[in-house]
Hints:
Low-confidence stretches: none
Shape: globular
Number of strands: 14
Number of helices: 6
Strand content: 25-35%
Mean pLDDT: 93
Order of helices and strands: EEEHHEHEEEHEHEEEEHEE
Helix content: 10-25%
Amino acid sequence: MEDRIQNIEARSNSKIAIGVIPGHFATNHSHVNFYVDMTAIKTSSKMAKEAAKDLASTYSSTHIDTIICLEGTEILGAFLAESLSSAGINAGEDISVVTPELNAVNQMIFRDNNQKKIWGKNVLLLISSASTGKSINRAVDCLQYYSGKLVAIAAIFSAIDQANGIPVHAIFKGGDLPQYSTYLPVDCPMCRAGKKVDALINSFGYSKI
């Protein structure tokens, strides 16, 4: 698989890049024809800082109290909080950065000590990849339970333009991967053509089959 990887630089900043691998990949709820590798943005402090600046520029006039990080975006979230706190409407503010816990039935929860960071707060949801919006919807359900107000959604890569009526601002969009497609497993044309699944993928990475 690795010999098929292609690097794509962000249109807004050539210092930000992702890798894409064409093939047949399965998530826990869909099949896709590209694996989008965001490891560098999630783990490299230099690239994460550049990515945070890119995302922060969109929210200079949006009041944000808390950033909720999903899918391993904590480093990016910390830099995003720093960037937001340095200019615009959030200048000088202390922005909280938190990550939900998943319980035994895969619901997102916050323990008592973190709930005060959500209750009545303006929340930016940060996710690595939005292909169908299901992870975002699950997070929205969680926020509603804890009385948080979702005011912004940011992603490294998103194939959707909005979720729950809120625009999804992404560094990389579907147009950057014009052939990217996602399918329900029962509707997957690659499965129908007898093409085997190359790997199982999730927010942590991939496992070859």
